[in-house]
């Protein structure tokens, strides 16, 4: 794990976008990371039907999500909004 990338134990639910948002800090810069429910379902291999399930499953798979985000940050794979958007390959 790259010690220069930190993940505070904070997350929020974005109802409109159906995604979890969580911050990362890299060399002093705050980076917003997002994981859509559909991606979280793939990571957890289960269906998510509401906000409570999404937050609970994110908490269970947080380390996996942080590892994916860390790799994307290192690769500088930001989206058009400057966010790190988690994806999974099939």
UniProtKB/TrEMBL annotation:
Listed Pfam families: DUF1488
Origin: domain of life: Bacteria
Protein name, as recorded: Uncharacterized protein
Source species: Vibrio gazogenes DSM 21264 = NBRC 103151
């Amino acid at each position: 794990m790259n010690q220069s990338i930190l993940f505070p134990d904070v997350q929020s639910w974005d109802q409109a976008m159906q995604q979890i948002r969580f911050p990362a800090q890299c060399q002093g810069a705050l980076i917003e990371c997002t994981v859509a429910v559909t991606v979280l379902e793939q990571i957890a291999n289960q269906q998510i039907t509401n906000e409570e399930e999404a937050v609970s499953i994110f908490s269970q798979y947080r380390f996996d999500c942080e590892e994916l985000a860390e790799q994307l940050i290192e690769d500088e794979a930001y989206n058009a909004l400057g966010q790190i958007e988690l994806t999974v390959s099939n």
